[in-house]
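Treating backbone geometry as a discrete language has practical consequences that deserve illustration. In the encoding step, the backbone of a single protein was reduced to a row of integers, each denoting a local shape. The amino acid sequence and the backbone structure tokens for this protein are reproduced below.
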Amino acid sequence: MKAFAALFAAVDQTTRTKVKVQALAEYFRTAPDDDKLWTIALFSHRRPRRLITTTILREWAAEQAGIPLWLFEECYPIVGDLAETISLVLPPPTQTSDHSLTHWITYIKALSKEDDTARKTGILAAWDQLEPLERFLFTKLLTGGFRVGVSQKLMTRALAQATDIDEAELTHRLMGDWTPDTTSYHSLIEAPDPTAALSRPYPFYLAYSLEDTATLDPPSDWNAERKWDGIRGQLILRAAEHHLWSRGEELITDRFPELAQLKDFLPDGTVIDGEVLAFANEAPLPFAQLQKRIGRKTVPKKLLTEAPVILMAYDLLEDRGEDIRALPFADRRARLADLIAPLPDTLPLRLSASVPFKTTQDLARERDISRDLGAEGLMLKNIHSPYLAGRKKGDWWKWKVDPLTIDAVMIYAQSGSGRRANLFTDFTFAVHDGDALVPFTKAYSGLTDAEFREITAWVKKNTLQRFGPVRQVTPHHVFEIAFEGIQASPRHKSGVALRFPRMLRWRKDKPTSEANTLADLKEMLAQYG
């Protein structure tokens, strides 16, 4: 754990990419293989599941530190991170240990099978033999909240330097549903494994938001498509089997059994990049319909009927076993069209239609009608572009419609975390319903640091009640809330839920009486839900 703690300190204390990569590469050259494997897993978001609730953990930490729980609770929002608060308040360890990262993860997994009494004994014993930074990391692993300021791409770059294996090859190897419990460092990184490639997706190519339509000059070099609101995925047909991967590298094959029939119609060695959409009567359904199926491992027949899906095909990455990502987009799309054209329209597969245009003014008009068609905007792809890995600027752009907005009153505030632990950054907003204010959404992004400091000073002076870390405040400030979509939600008092809400503007010019109403929200729901 000491070597891993030293690595964490090295990458956490710098913003310089080169320094982070060097620290990681050196670690990968010297650490034991099982620790390297767990480090790769942690830096690629494959964290152990949470062992225990934070409420119980706070109680045990306060007890071990010999302080009342209320004092720990006062310290927590000031520090802004539970694991760091625990590492600071606990007394110095009375023992020492030099166990590895893998040892402590195995230790945590063993505790998961014990009752709370045994868990408490085990956790207190661990805290008593770990130095503060090691305690911090151990507690992060306990809570399933391990995060570090290094992207998977940087980690992969460092691994490439340490192993002399091509970075693109490593990127491909690290995709999929592997865990340290199902593979070894040698099998994952070093050994050739021809069978693993049968189900493995390609790294996804991601687009930047369009900043200037002048980028699209000349227009003849670009293809435009609708940007649909679904689940980006890759359908893989190899060795008479099919696999569906989400952009987040999650295997979601079983959630969409309709797509299994495609392996009987498409040639072996086909990989299609597209969007899984809830779809009926040749039109996409609202994302809320698809959302009903996202969290399920198995889908009942009733839901299959209520929310049928298709794969809206965007790109062809592999054609009859040939990796064609290096071909120009226009060629890949032509092959994709030829592949889909003869298929019966009863299959859950459609080619994403090109949007005709001659000028950027044409594109702007097409973008403006996107929401009426159930789309988020336009995708713009250079017809000469290869299919790359990750987010690259220049060849692929997304041009989304302007968000929906509503003016709302702030009624609750809560402190942020990390560097914003001393600021109130998380707010609950309400709209008018007669004489009442009905809460309908939360938002925590969109303001500048200066604005957060200003609203924090106001919250401290205008708190009406406290509910743990949450403060009820005087209904005085109006904010313009932007969001991408709206749907009915029986779980919320307002009856609606917003998609991707954020604060667009602090409307200091508006009194609370001019905020929107619940009726306005319901009207939006009827129009866009």
